[in-house]
Amino acid sequence: MHIEQAIRDKITDALSPTHFEVTNESHMHSVPQDSETHFKLVIVAEGFSGKRRVARHQAVYAALAEELAGPVHALALHLFSPEEWQEKTAAVPDSPQCLGGSKKEAKG
Question: Whole-prediction pTM value?
């Protein structure tokens, strides 16, 4: 099973999101082509209502423990309750470009 699909399945099972986006951002980093190592997740779930950011992140980390212990290097998480999502008027921010590895600019 591909990592992206595993993320979709595990988050859906664990959090029953009302809105869920998975973006593979690996191509923005110094990794081989077709890698599945860097992801951005936008998750809207009733279970996030009344929970602080840390608790929300912990729920995602628990659901994806196997992926985070192995192939997934980074997650950009944007986690909302349904009420927060409904009130949100701005788009989820873009992830910054990676400046690590071979993409780092030479300093001189």
Answer: 0.80
